[in-house]
Amino acid sequence: MSVIIEKIFNNTQLVSEPKAIKSVSEITKILQDSGVSPSIQRIKILQFISTNEVHSSVEKIYHELVTEIPTLSKTTVYNTLSLFIEKGIVNSLSIDNNEILYEKSQKPHAHFLCEVCKSIFDLDLNDNLLAIKEIYGNKVKKVDIHIKGVCNKCLNNK
Ligand SMILES: [Zn+2]
Ligand SMILES: [Zn+2]
After folding, report:
1. How is domain 24-103 classified at the CATH fold level?
2. pLDDT-above-70 percentage for the chain
3. H/E/C letters for each residue in 10-40?
4. Ligand nearest to the CA of 113
5. Which fold, 107-157?
């Protein structure tokens, strides 16, 4: 890993692994701690975002959950996600003006998009970069880093 890369990222690992499934009681607690009343739809949506998919679209969440919750609508998914963002439980991101993706809030990080398989990987950013409050007299509010390329899995399939 080059010195420059080491200054930006904490490690070279691209992370897109599914996380351990959180139980309904764990999810309920996260919602309650954030002042959100835990309806079954809200629990299922947050459970899906927290576990199965690291970065999911409204479309994907809806299609995955509608079989389990037939009364679910895309509007409900969208409104629930907006509420989660407002409460700081979920982050939204948009790479390349594609559809908006949602992920469970965590430490700020960069994203790597594979242009071949469309996978999105998380990259752990160095805290020094995130601590930047000002650039040449301009106030920094948020650092978003999106990197596009071909992931090593796709490179090796060639
Ligand atoms: Zn790929
Ligand atoms: Zn991410």
Report:
1. Arc Repressor Mutant, subunit A (1.10.10)
2. 85
3. CCCCCECCCCCCCCHHHHHHHHHHCCCCCCH
4. 1
5. Dna Ligase; domain 1 (3.30.1490)
